[in-house]
Each structure stands twice: as structure tokens, then as C-alpha cells.
From TrEMBL:
This is Alginate lyase. It comes from Polaribacter pectinis. The keyword GTP-binding does not apply. Keywords: Lyase. The keyword Lyase applies. One of its GO terms (molecular function) is lyase activity.
């Protein structure tokens, strides 16, 4: 009976796809595959044998018909692994690819999957479905590529899982260069965009629709019913840069960025869920630039970001803006949205930089306020009072407010004329969906121009007869189960479950390197007291902890060659070092990334340890990135250089770590680069780089620092230096803070160590 049921389902799927199989071709290698493609006719079904297909460049160029597609598929979905230096390109009509798994490799070109084989052979009416791309990254971070690039018209990416992109370039891009690719009506639907880790700079979007220089072209692309989970590549999750796109019924779950109408006009953003946690300020909502957008029926939960990552960020524009900058916001509608426990949900004039006019050219000054914009029929609920519901970075005098309601937990707020206070409760639909019950609230929805075209609400209920303000017309909708991951992505793919690591006991007589190499992800290397002398780098290529087994610190003595590290931080290498003494010979390094081929991130956390006699404490080379680097309760002494994170000198907004934290540490006799953390280039979209130096002591440091500055953090946006003591450091400045950004200092004691200055506007190289 089960086999009969599966057969019926397969037949139904083929009929629903208008596909009549006339010829099945089973292929076992690249030569057979190429022959099958070369001879393919409408209705052919090309089947790839299960197994690893390594170093294959699949050029799928053929012409099917609407009723007789040509399919290229895995023998068993998920059992055909595309590895090594490999890619896939389409050219032709009515082609389908299904069931492939790209892993353990990278593309030899700028695309993993391209909907064209060359400039003269684009794809139309083609589809990629039920496929997976995971960690298929170039070996160098600055070697940008795109995992899926659309060309042509009426193509589709659906029911796929894509995750783990670490190098530059959007995960998915729709390209409009050429008349054959405008008015494309592409569809990106029912996919699971899994975690995209922080990149440390721009060029890390999950989806980009067009580019600055095609932003006046109509795209008509639909992004619908997708699940975006921890898409943290940069401040823009979706960057819409063309006209007439629709972003509908998606879920943005704990993703550090926003949906952004970066260029182009007339985007419809309808019925999406934005789910935060009330703690992470990087989870964003919707940011608006340009003309004619409609933002309706969206639900925002615990989104507490500010400025670029606020729940609704309406930007200032540049008068007579060039294509690649910021046009003024005009003729936008924000209606029927619900905000629950969001911080300052309406922010206007975001990005205004009039105060920086002394260091920026006139062409960069964002002074054009939003005009002819309507904010109506929105509902806000706060379980904790919010005194600044509307934030005006510049005046919002071009915005019309109508029939907006707030329950602010009984507290006063500044905007009672633009938002009406009311009492109502919440109806719990699920852990992340709490809908306001506004049946008792006497506020009639504002009926603006074309508002009658908003015919349904977030849940699909009709607005035509029983309309109400907020994202839903009623508070007792059926649970949509938006976090049920089985509803999105490839049917066969399951994310690996987290396996709890085991503890591996090591004595001084054991080979420490062998123990670390044989350990699994998440394991703890527990060191007995004693001295561990090593002469070659310990390779860290997984998430692993090395710690002393007792309060008595184990001592690791590194006798390795000059400029080699005791701990070599490889791709995927996340090291936690606890309660250990670590010493070198004065010419080698304590920790360092690889110099090249860092295809994935590293990470480092050091606590309760003693580090001494190294040339570098940490050396991060160019094109390497760590999401976090932390030193806590640790002493660092008698080192030539300290923490070096300053190799990204291309001034494109890149930097080597997202979070650098120094907490309750002592630095003694570190001669230069005590802390050197750099981000260059004027790029308002890169709002990262985070430095915290707290409760620490710096003594006799910086003697060889050429610029006479102890803590170098030029271009880092978020800097907090507090409750530290600086004593007898031979420098002119402890720090120069960037006043126009989030750089602050407090309660620091300076003794014979220069001073801390604030420079309001740093002169930065323009990136555009």
C-alpha cells in the first residue's frame, strides 16, 4: 500500500509539472552526462547516479517545452553530492534541476548556479528545486561570488536550503543587465535560507534584486513563503534595487538585518513576520528608500534595533542623488502592521548626516526628508513602556499619520497627537505570535487612496467587509506554525543536530597534538597539571575547548619556529582556552589564523589564563574573520605585539572580527599593537565592528607604537572603553574616539599615559 501511495504521488507531481516523461537516461559520470544533455529532447529525464560527483561543471543547455520539460535530477534526492571545483549553469527553455547537494567545494566561476551558460544563452522558464548548497565557499573571503544568479525570465528557485556563505557576494542575486532579463517575473519561493554568518563588512546580502545601475528597470520578482533563519551576513537581508518587486509571506527569524528597498521603486512588502528576541539589537525590520512602496499586513515581534535596524526605518535621501546612493522617500504607504514589544518602531530621517558635512562632499549629505508618505492603521503593543514610539532623526513633517493605536502599558509617550492611546490585550497564537485584540477599540480604519486594494490581512482573511486596524482583522487566527522548518526548503535535508561533546583527559606525557586532532567538534581537552612542550602548531579546525583539569594551571610552552603560532586557527576553528599558562620564545605567536585559504570563520575565547613572551598574542591575517574574539580574566605580558586585527586595509568597510572583548585583563610590557582593530572606508551600510575594553589594566605598554596611540580602533563603529587603568604607557593617546558614531569612554584612570580624545568626524575614504 505504501509503494502504491508513493507511485501515485510521483505521478501526481509529474502531471502537476506539465511533464510527460518520454525517455529516462541514467548517467554515471560527466562524459555520459554531457552526452545526455547534448542529445536531450523535450520530455527527457536525465538521472544522475547516487554518489559523489567531484570537479564537475554542468552546462545544462537544452530546450524543453511547457508540456514536456527536460529534467536533470538525482537518482535519490540528496544522494548526489556535487563537490570539489564544481558548478551548474542553465541555458535554454523549460529545464528543471532537482535533488542535488552542493558541499565540500566551491565554484570555479562567479556562480554556483547560473541561469545562463553565457551572455548569449540565458535561461527562461527554468527551475531549481529541492536542492541544497551548504558551505560552498571560495577559499578567500574577498573572492566574491554568488551562489544562485538569475538571468532571463520566468525562472524559479524553490524548496531549496542554502546556508553558510562566508565570502563576499549575495547568496542569491537577480541580474537585470540586458533587455532579456528585465520584466523577468522570477520566483524565489518556499526556500529555507539557513544561517549566513556575519561577514565583517558589506557585500553579504542573502538576496539582492538588481544593482544600482539597473535600479530604474522593472524586475517584477516575487520572494514569497521563505524562511530566513539567522541571516546575519550584513545589514541588508533582502536588498531590493529594482522596480515592482513583491516580498510576501516570508518569515525573518532572528536575522541580523532588514528588508531594504535600497534602490528602485514600487515594492510591495506584504504579510511578513519579523521575529526577534527582545535582546539582540541587530535583528531588524524594514528600511525604506525611494518611491511608491507599500508596507502592509506585516507583524513585528520583539524587534528592538535602532536606526538602520529599527522595525520601520524611513531614511533621509540625498538631493539629486546618483543611482548608487540614496533617493528621497516619497509616496510610500505603511499600513495595517502590528508591532508587539518593539522598541521605537517608527524611525524617520534615518541616516541623516548633516552634522558630518565638514568631512563629506556635498553629494553625500542626506538631507532630503520623506514626503507624501502615509502611516496609517497600525497597532503597537508594549508590555514595557516605550517613551519614544516615534523617533525623528530629522523632522517627519512630510508624513501623514492616521488611525494608529498604541497600548503603552499605561505610560505616557511623546506622540499622543499622531498615535492614539488605547487599552487592549493580546491573544497568544504561539510563542512568537501575540495578536492585539482590538475589538473594543473605537478606531475606524483610515481609507486612503488605493487602500481598497488591500483586500486581505496577514492570515489571508478578507478586509472587504469586516476591516480593522493592525495586521489581522481578528485576534483568534489559526496558528500558522511559522517556525515549522519542515514547511520550507528541501524535503530530504535535515540540519545536523547539536552533539554534546565529551571530555578527553590528557597528561603531560601524552601527545597533545594527536589528542586535539582526534577530538570531535564540541569536545573538551582536559589537561592535567604539568608542562606541555610543543614544537609545532596545534591545529584548531573545529569547535574545541582546551582547559586545565584543576585550579593548578597546566603550562603549554611553545618552542616553534619564528612567526608560527602555538594555536593555528583554521577554517571552522573555534578555540576556547581556559585556565592555562601559555608561553613562547619571543619570536613566535600565541594564536594566528592561516595566511590564506580561510574559507570559513575562526573564533577565539581566552579566560583565566596567562600569556607571555610572544611576538604576537593574536595575528589575524587579511581575508580572515572571527565572529568573536574574547580575552577575559587573563594576563598578557612581555610580548612584542598584542592583538592584531588590522589587515583589512582595502577600505571597503571590511574588518577582521565582529566582537572584540577585553574584560578584566592585564597588559604589561606589550610594546606595540596592544589592541589594533581597523575598519576603513566610509560605508554607512556597514554598521559593525564592536570593541569593549573594560575593567582592565595597561602598564608599560606601547613603547614602540609608531603612531603613539595605545588602543587603535580607527573606523570601528561601536567602541566602549570603561573602568580601566592606564599607567606609565609611553604614548600620546590612549584612544581617539569617533564622536559621530557610538564611541564612548567612562571612568578610566590615566597615569602618565597620554590622554583620550574624541574626534567628532573622522575623514574616511569614500567607497563609492
Amino acid at each position: 500500500m505504501k509503494n502504491l501511495f508513493l507511485t501515485f504521488n510521483l505521478l501526481f507531481l509529474l502531471i502537476s509539472c506539465n511533464k510527460e516523461i518520454t525517455n529516462s537516461v541514467f548517467v554515471k559520470n560527466s562524459s555520459e552526462l554531457n552526452d545526455a544533455i547534448k542529445n536531450a529532447k523535450p520530455g527527457d529525464d536525465i538521472v544522475l547516479k547516487d554518489g559523489v560527483w567531484k570537479d564537475v561543471e554542468i552546462e545544462f543547455s537544452a530546450k524543453g517545452t511547457k508540456d514536456n520539460l527536460i529534467t536533470l535530477r538525482a537518482e535519490t534526492p540528496g544522494k548526489v553530492f556535487i563537490e570539489g571545483v564544481s558548478n551548474l549553469s542553465f541555458g535554454g527553455e523549460y529545464l528543471v534541476v532537482s535533488g542535488l547537494h552542493f558541499r565540500n567545494g566551491y565554484s570555479p566561476t562567479v556562480n554556483v548556479i547560473a541561469f545562463r551558460t553565457d551572455k548569449n544563452n540565458v535561461a527562461n522558464n527554468c527551475r531549481v528545486t529541492n536542492c541544497v548548497i551548504v558551505d560552498f565557499n571560495k577559499l578567500e573571503r574577498d573572492n566574491d561570488d554568488l551562489w544562485v544568479q538569475f538571468y532571463g525570465r520566468h525562472n524559479q528557485l524553490d524548496h531549496c536550503y542554502l546556508a553558510g556563505k562566508t565570502n563576499g557576494g549575495p547568496t542569491v542575486r537577480v541580474d537585470l543587465k540586458g533587455i532579456e532579463s528585465i520584466k523577468n517575473y522570477h520566483k524565489i519561493t518556499n526556500n529555507h535560507f539557513g544561517p549566513r554568518p556575519r561577514k565583517g563588512g558589506a557585500r553579504g546580502e542573502t538576496i539582492q534584486l538588481g544593482s544600482s545601475f539597473t535600479s530604474m528597470s522593472p524586475s517584477n520578482t516575487t520572494i514569497a513563503n521563505n524562511f530566513f533563519e539567522e541571516c546575519n551576513g550584513e545589514v541588508e537581508i533582502i536588498s531590493s534595487k529594482t522596480n515592482f518587486n513583491e516580498i510576501k509571506n516570508n518569515v525573518f527569524y532572528k536575522s541580523e538585518g532588514s528588508v531594504v528597498t535600497r534602490h528602485g521603486n514600487y515594492t510591495m512588502i506584504d504579510g511578513n513576520y519579523f521575529i526577534g528576541d527582545g535582546e539582540n539589537e541587530n535583528y531588524g525590520g524594514i528600511r525604506i528608500v525611494n518611491t511608491g512602496h507599500w508596507i502592509v499586513n506585516n507583524y513585528f515581534y520583539k524587534i528592538i534595533g535602532e536606526n538602520f535596524r529599527s522595525p520601520l526605518a524611513v531614511m533621509n535621501g540625498i538631493p539629486k542623488s546618483p543611482l548608487n546612493r540614496y533617493n528621497q522617500v516619497t509616496d510610500v504607504v505603511v499600513a495595517y502592521n502590528t508591532y508587539v514589544d518593539c522598541k521605537s518602531p517608527f524611525q524617520f530621517g534615518v541616516g541623516t548626516n548633516i552634522a558630518q558635512s565638514a568631512v563629506l562632499p556635498k553629494s553625500e549629505i542626506r538631507s532630503a526628508r520623506p514626503i507624501r508618505t502615509t502611516v496609517a492603521n497600525n497597532v503597537i503593543y508594549n508590555s514595557v513602556e516605550d517613551k519614544n514610539v516615534i523617533v525623528e532623526h530629522d523632522k517627519a513633517d512630510g508624513v501623514l499619520f492616521k488611525s494608529n493605536v498604541i497600548n503603552n502599558n499605561g505610560a505616557d509617550f511623546k506622540d499622543s497627537k499622531r498615535i492614539k492611546s488605547a487599552n487592549f490585550d493580546l491573544n497568544k497564537i504561539s510563542d512568537n505570535i501575540m495578536l492585539p485584540n482590538i475589538s473594543s477599540v473605537d478606531v475606524k480604519p483610515y481609507n486612503g487612496f488605493d487602500f481598497d486594494l488591500i483586500k486581505t490581512d496577514l492570515a489571508g482573511n478578507s478586509r472587504e467587509k469586516n476591516n480593522a486596524i493592525g495586521a489581522t482583522v481578528k485576534a483568534d487566527i489559526t496558528n500558522p506554525n511559522i517556525l515549522d522548518r519542515s514547511k520550507y526548503g528541501a524535503t530530504w535535508f535535515k540540519v545536523d543536530a547539536i552533539v554534546e561533546g565529551k571530555t578527553i583527559k590528557v597528561s603531560a606525557s601524552d601527545n597533545l597534538s594527536e589528542k586535539i586532532n582526534s577530538a570531535n567538534k564540541g569536545d573538551i581537552i582536559s589537561l592535567d597539571a604539568g608542562k606541555y612542550i610543543i614544537s609545532k602548531s596545534l591545529i584548531i579546525d573545529k569547535n574545541i575547548t582546551v582547559q586545565s583539569a584543576s585550579e593548578n594551571k597546566a603550562e603549554i610552552v611553545f618552542e616553534g619556529a619564528e612567526n608560527t603560532p602555538a594555536f593555528s586557527l583554521n577554517p571552522y576553528g573555534i578555540l576556547t582556552l581556559k585556565n592555562v599558562k601559555l608561553s613562547g620564545n619571543g619570536k613566535n605567536q600565541a594564536f594566528a589564523s592561516l595566511k590564506e585559504k580561510m574559507s570559513n570563520h575562526f573564533g577565539l575565547s581566552v579566560s583565566d589564563s596567562e600569556i607571555s613572551n610572544f611576538n604576537y598574542v593574536l595575528k589575524a591575517y587579511k581575508q580572515t574573520f572571527a565572529e568573536t574574539v574574547t580575552f577575559k580574566n587573563t594576563s598578557i605580558s612581555n610580548c612584542e605585539n598584542g592583538i592584531e586585527l588590522s589587515e583589512e586595509t582595502n577600505d571597503r568597510g571590511d574588518y577582521n572580527t565582529e566582537f572584540l572583548t577585553i574584560d578584566n585583563c592585564t597588559f604589561n610590557n606589550v610594546k606595540q599593537n596592544v589592541i589594533d582593530y581597523y575598519r576603513g572606508g566610509y560605508d554607512e551600510s556597514t554598521i559593525g565592528g564592536n570593541l569593549l575594553v573594560t575593567n582592565s589594566t595597561f602598564t608599560n605598554c606601547g613603547a614602540k607604537e609608531k603612531n603613539k596611540m595605545l588602543l587603535n580602533h580607527r573606523g570601528i563603529v561601536n567602541v566602549d572603553i570603561n573602568n580601566n587603568t592606564f599607567k606609565n604607557n609611553k604614548v600620546q593617546f590612549v584612544s581617539i574616539l569617533w564622536g559621530a558614531k557610538n564611541n564612548v569612554e567612562s571612568n578610566n584612570t590615566l597615569i602618565n599615559s597620554g590622554k583620550i580624545n574624541t574626534e567628532e568626524n573622522l575623514v574616511m575614504k569614500l567607497m563609492y
